[in-house]
Amino acid sequence: MIRCAFLLAGLVLTASVSVPALAQSPGPAPARVAVAPADEPVPRAQRAKARQDCIAEHVALSGDDLRAAMRDCIQAKFPDVQLYARDGVTRDGKPTAVATRAACKTEIDAQGLAGSARTAALVACFNARRPDLAQRAECRKDARGKGLDGDDLRKAVDACAREARS
Known about the structure:
There is one protein chain. The chain is an all-alpha fold. The chain folds into three domains: 41-84; 88-129, no CATH class; 131-166, no CATH class. The chain has seven helices and no strands. The protein has helices at residues 2-24, 44-57, 63-77, 97-111, 115-129, 131-145, 150-165. Helix 6 (131-145) crosses helix 7. It starts with a helix and ends with a helix. The model is unreliable at 17-23 and 25-38 (pLDDT under 50).
């Protein structure tokens, strides 16, 4: 009986000590909200979750059908943000590389050029219309000349392009 009394007294004492301690201890840390960098319209975690959901919805598709369905699905999850190039225009309003090449090809074909003169004219036209992509291509060429590939290549091209813009 005495043992039970001591045990009960110990539980009451422990409870009286731990309750105020719990009341004073800080609660769980508030969840951090991922902030997207200025050039990322949707945070990576949200995009990854949307991608997983869309893949689960379109598991039976493959190839171009899957690619088109995924673009439509992910864009539907973020309707206020233009995630992909559309109608020959990139997210930031510049003409896409494909649209630029097609326009340059039409322009050069109208001039009736052939051979190396045609190739040089196409390169000059593209570089004039999209100097940012021309700079990245030059950076990539330099980085590959140094033997870089994979993640190192990407980082070198990004750094080079950033330096060229500033």
